[in-house]
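Note to self: user wants both folds in one dump. Writing first protein now.
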Amino acid sequence: MTTTNNPSDEPCPEATHCGYCMSPTRPLVGRCHRCHTPLCRLCAVHCVGCGETFCLQCSTRCESCADPLCDDCADCPPYAEGQWCPACYAHETDSLAPEYQDPYQNIPGDEHLTIGLEIEVDGPHDHEAITRNDLIAGWCADGSLDRDGWEYQTQPLDTDPQTLSRLHRLIAGIRPLKSQEHAGGHIHISRASGQYAADWACALDGLDANRAAWLNMRHADPEQNRWCRYTDYYHGKEVAVNDDHDDTIELRTFGPWNADTAEQLLPAIKWIKTMWRLFQRHPNGLSEEDIEAASRTAWADAVPASAREKAVV
């Protein structure tokens, strides 16, 4: 932060012009709380933390939101850079590292399907209501979202109807107040002996853009698939299927989950459940043609009749 060159802490004498831009015509609106320089409206800024008036030289900008900020109100979150305003600092440091609990931990074997959602919500929403829900394992700020946005991680969930009903109610209760074009809703599926990223990518490739949209998938839409492009490379944050996790395969194709997409959630999970079981029954692999055909059949079984009637053949 830049400091003032004014050697005195005493108030400046009465002046008829702005001491910062030296304009004799602009009316004065106050004095800098730090260096006491008289200021016009264009040169005065008000700290978002304390509300006091400062000149441009005695203030800075929040690294996150770019609002004006004084030195006394600035702070820097761990693992971040620059000065942050109180609101952005509170947002950045309000997080909970997830402690995942396997719903099958007391059941023998490790060949069980679980799903885990990353629920990104951009902009203002009822953050407290989501964090109080026991389906949520953790949450954090996300650099792709604005300062009121969050990413929430669910517990690994079984696909019992009661569990899915509770998940649906959670999603249906999320009502963002702005566009969600920068948000996503990745779904993690449990690894097991028959699960391979390449098979899941093939299953996605079996769905054209119209079918994919009915399941809130974006990989087939070139205008929306920046972070989930279909590819035969299964690593990183720009692919539809990410194979980088030890315990799960991440399907990054899904769009944000909220009240606007809640009715697509259970069909999407039903499609996942059908394909997961198919891969488990054929651990030695299936042909690409068989996987793509099975994917379309699973889609038709999952979506409402109205979607089947409009499907591209």
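First done. Writing the second protein, which came from a different request thread.
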Amino acid sequence: MQDELSELNRQVLTTFGQPVMVFRGASLFSETRGIISKSLVPAGQYEAVLQTVTSITLPASLKLQRGDEVQSADQQWMVDRKLKDDGQLTWWGLHEA
């Protein structure tokens, strides 16, 4: 069953993902495919104020850490924190570099 889930997640990243490069310090840490998404979430105690949150979905085998730099096309982000992990894929919060 795990092999089928791994294959399905690989197909999802191949289909919907885009090439990303992850840098740790000044050197290239990994080159992979990831799904970058933006969403609006309430900021603070008032739901009328929204902020944009950028996240990236990557294979769970790729262990990022706070401060790693993610580049895709002509955009750059810094890794903030892990948002979710389902064992196959991991969602990371990003902020503009």
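Dump finished. Worth passing along: The longest helix spans residues 2-16.
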